[in-house]
Prior knowledge:
By secondary structure, this protein is α+β, with helices and mostly antiparallel strands. It contains four helices and seven strands; from the N terminus they run H-H-E-E-E-E-H-E-E-H-E.
Amino acid sequence: MKRLLGFLLVLVTLLALAVGAVITMVVVGVRSRDRRFIRAFTKFQRDVVNPEVLKTAGDAGQQFSVIEHVGRKTGKAYETPVGARRDGDGWVVSLVYGREASWVQNLLAAGSGVLHTDGRRHRVDGFEIVPIDSAPLPEDEAKAITFFGITEALRLHDAGEVDEASVPAADTAGEES
């Protein structure tokens, strides 16, 4: 019995160290803006995390919204989950992976997109990249932003609600976040 408990203790310790190493790697990778890390991590997020988040993102009462955008290279419609916060006549989204993220580049190139948030779809335009300090964020989110070293946000101007029928079908796996 003592031997089994010792084995379990070692196993739990190794698991905790592995989880700690992964968390450290993610924080360091995001803070350093290492392109190789960001590319690999966003591919994992796009292929594994986003499909699950997209099942409820944008629905009334959900934490995450969905930005619907058109690929500047592919011309395909994509959906990417984002954390949009209301800000005056629009929204603000913290740029976790910076302004180089594909969804950001797609929006900037197209000049508009659709934000699905709280059960409604809004055409968004008039994009502006701003310092994260000027974005209205809840305190718990502000702490995470500081921890990950996020420095910019994207302001989205609300250009009005969109009729469901006018929104093209999207690749629900999403594009790079």
